[in-house]
Write a structure and sequence with these properties.
- The chain has helices at residues 13-19, 33-57, 61-74, 119-129, 146-151, 165-175, 191-195, and strands at residues 78-82, 93-99, 102-111, 135-140, 160-163.
- By secondary structure, the protein is α/β, with parallel strands linked by helices.
- The two termini are 37 Å apart.
């Protein structure tokens, strides 16, 4: 026992060991404001991503085709046209992308699906645009099967660019499509301001 302070008895570490009592762990230091804000922002981003994906899933298929046109325009495509909803021949729309002196004529197809897209859909889309377009773009709210990803690029065939649900949301966040970013103000103590008055004296 430690009685160094009059009227106060405190068990020492040696005494704790003899009695088999484990010393309490040191108190955890509170998280910094920076780490707390970072964690809150990360959680908010995940919530926004989930909300965007659900909003896309709630669109009517025809509305999703219109959205896809806006998505491609945000990526720099021009002269984007959405074809008629019924009897479009497997092509939901088309547009042009100019890269320097090169002009690419692309067609796109969209699927508002929860299941992964199989390779048959990629091959069917390619067949619909072969000989008329330089590139195909397949946009889906879900994802593509491993085999579908393989057949998207074939030697001598029109390449098909694959845009899955995660990539759609990434583009929306990067291009500010369907989202509005607001500045975050963080208030901190200005140490230099108080240092200018000199050190405090008791």
């Amino acid at each position: 026992l430690d009685a160094s302070v009059r009227g106060t008895w405190r068990i020492t570490d040696k005494g704790r060991t003899r009695l088999g009592v484990v010393s309490p762990p040191p108190p955890l230091s509170p998280p910094s404001s920076t780490s707390t804000i970072g964690a809150l922002l990360d959680r908010e981003r995940q919530q926004i991503r989930a909300q965007l994906h659900e909003l896309l899933m709630n669109l009517h298929p025809q509305q999703f085709e219109e959205f896809a046109g806006k998505l491609l325009e945000s990526l720099g495509f021009t002269d984007v046209e959405v074809t008629k909803y019924v009897g479009d021949g497997g092509i939901d729309g088309y547009g042009n992308l100019e890269m320097g002196v090169v002009k690419v004529k692309a067609a796109f197809q969209v699927k508002r699906w929860r299941n992964n897209v199989p390779p048959a859909e990629i091959n069917q889309f390619r067949g619909a645009i072969q000989g008329e377009f330089d590139q195909g773009i397949f946009i889906v709210t879900s994802d593509f099967s491993g085999e579908a990803k393989k057949v998207s690029s074939k030697r001598g065939a029109v390449p098909i660019v694959l845009i899955n649900g995660d990539r759609i949301v990434n583009i929306m966040l990067e291009r500010g499509l369907g989202v509005r970013q607001e500045p975050l103000t963080v208030t901190r103590i200005d140490e230099e301001f108080f240092t200018a008055f000199g050190t405090t004296e008791d």
